[in-house]
Specification:
Elements (H helix, E strand, L loop, with lengths): L10 H4 L7 H7 L2 H13 L5 H17 L2 E7 L12 E2 L16 H5 E2 L19 E5 L6 E5 L2 E12 L8 H21 L8 E15 H4 L3 H6 L24 H16 L4 E6 L5 E6 L2 E2 H21 L2 E4 L13 E9 L16 H16 L1 H7 L21 E2 L2 H13 L10 E2 L9 E2 L11 E3 L4 E3 L9 H22 L5 H16 L11 H10 L7 H5 L5 H9 L5 H54 L5 H32 L4 H27 L12 H6 L2
Helix pairs in contact: 6-14, 9-10, 11-14, 11-15, 12-14, 19-20, 19-21, 20-21
This protein binds adenosine-5'-diphosphate and magnesium ion (MG).
The site of adenosine-5'-diphosphate has 15 residues, from strand 7, strand 9 and strand 12.
Length: about 700
Amino acid sequence: MTTNEESFINIEEIFGKNVFSIGKMKEHLSEEVYLELKRVMENGGELKRETADEVAQAMKDWAIENGATHFTHWFQPLTGITAEKHDAFITHPDKKGKTILDFSGKDLIKGEPDASSFPSGGLRATFEARGYTVWDITSPAFLKEDAIGVILCIPTAFCSYKGEALDKKTPLLRSMEALNTQSLRLIRLFGNTNSKKVIPNVGAEQEYFLVDHSKYMRRMDLIFAGRTLFGANAPKGQEMDDHYFGTIPERVGSYMRDLNIEMWKLGVSAKTQHNEAAPAQHELAPIYETANIAVDHNQLMMETMKKVAERHGMNCLLHEKPFKGVNGSGKHDNWSLTTDDGINLLDPGETPHENIQFLLVLACILKAVDTHADLLRQSASDVGNDLRLGANEAPPAIISVFLGEQLEDVVKQLVETGAADHTLAGGKLETGVSTLTDFEKDATDRNRTSPFAFTGNKFEFRMVGSSDSIGSPNTILNAIVAEAFCEACDVLEKADNFDMGVHDLIKKYFTEHRRIIFNGDGYSEEWVKEAEKRGLPNLRSMVDAVDTLVTDKAIKLFEKFGIFTRTELESRREILYDIYSKTINIEAKTMLDMARRQYIPAVSRYEMELSKTAGLLREINTDFSVQREIVRSIADELTAVHNACKNLEDVLEEACTISNAKDKAFYYREKVFECMEILRRPVDRLETMVDRKYWPVPTYAELMFEV
Ligand code: ADP
Ligand code: MG
């Protein structure tokens, strides 16, 4: 990647420059091939071999014209990040020693990475290494510009030899197909015969932290765990609310500018940028797009955020909770359903009470979220998010839906009287200042604490972690809504009187699933109690949520719609437990290393200096009680650190002896995690007692306030 130093940016010119977009396909392909490709992109089906060859040829020519030397199948294994293996376009040299640049239809469609080193959760033994990457024709190929050169990246799905999904993309694509089929059934019932396709649209707002690279390199916890495992709070945190939407510092501004340029080149509509609540925290949101493309683009965004930060002498932290005591980072997953001819099924219109199709869609979504709250919760869990969900800065771990006053009122009318005859209007916003224009305000205020909020014409799923792929949350959303639509259509397609049938069904769903609606303060203790009374699940941690994938209810759902097989679900369960244990294990080992080889030696040096001073003072008959007192307190804390290290080491040894993946993960969650906390406390206290020139790592103040 080169730095973008030119001061003038022409967005129109650079936007999509590195994407082999539909427009470029049209330019580079024969009419016949272009039309076939477009047909398969829109409706699915097999691409003819000759077509694939011509597309590959055109793609290669375009890539080479733009400086590409290699191509790669770009995929999303279950590690949560992307994977790529580069191949140069060259072939064996001919007799004259000249190489021919080659890239066939076969190279485009299918790749065969040695899959044995990716997590498969027992789907494949190491000796059955074969795995395939398959071109996702609906997500455009793009060029990645790097220090390594220019690489043609082909978005692909990743499957085992037997076709089992080994990635986050295959199930997502399957869920989109299921949702399309069921949504079409539903809109046909309302007389829509024009729309040919229904697509989930997704816009993911990405939060992140920036820290200075030289400081980052001095913190092993940031390097190995992506978060600080120790650290006393700085004198100032986010209590003044002065960072949120604050003026963007020059260094960060220059980073954001570069990041935008890289994203625009990749065809990602990076749109909104601002400072977030915590010091050194920021956000970037793109414009929404088709779910699978949004998933790819979010991966690209996370990757680019890290790369651009390096160019600016910084590191981008995507971890959900890099610092204790200030907000962590999440990713709001905005989701709606739109037809190919532009009708948003989640648009209530001016008078939602009259919009029967909307009300049915809404009732189905409520039913879906209530029925599968556990799965939705699971889809937003990762190790880092455990430190965030339910900690009064992010949604609680309990799933509920916020509808807002206007819709809640419609639901109330329907449930209580069987009919809804009016819609609450927003009214005028009056500021009391004659020079400020009064305007019609939104019908509903916002609710920042709700995990699943209706926001005008979309739902905003606010639980997702900042470092996580949005693949799983959207797969689950699509799947559960497909099921609810399917069940509604099963009833309505048989109804003698459609109008009556649909009315009764909406009322039934709203009545049965009203418990999932909550418009109040999701952070409050009362809500936890109230939710328990309502019977809503409260899955506090990632490990508590894993088994939701393999309940009878979940298996039935996923198998019915061909999204996951039982075997695939079981493998994912294994992988999740394994990821949890391994992550905590790395964190614990990092803590031990830092405590023993950085903190204890540093504190001892300070102890020595104080003791020497005390000794000297004593020799000259001067009061040395201050030094003595400090040394004693420090010695006490140091003993605590030492003991906590021994404890942590013991539980880690014990953990090694557990072979069952679930038992092991729970042991890490319950025992190891607790011992880590016990080790952290005395170290953080020491940080506030020890001469700062002895402190071996950059502090919170230095990391967050000196970017
Ligand atoms: P905020 O939630 O911060 O007020 P917006 O509502 O403008 O911000 O948008 C947040 C994200 O939601 C953006 O990525 C935006 O493109 C996306 N978004 C807006 N409308 C829709 C929609 N109908 N479907 C899916 N995503 C949407
Ligand atoms: Mg938002």
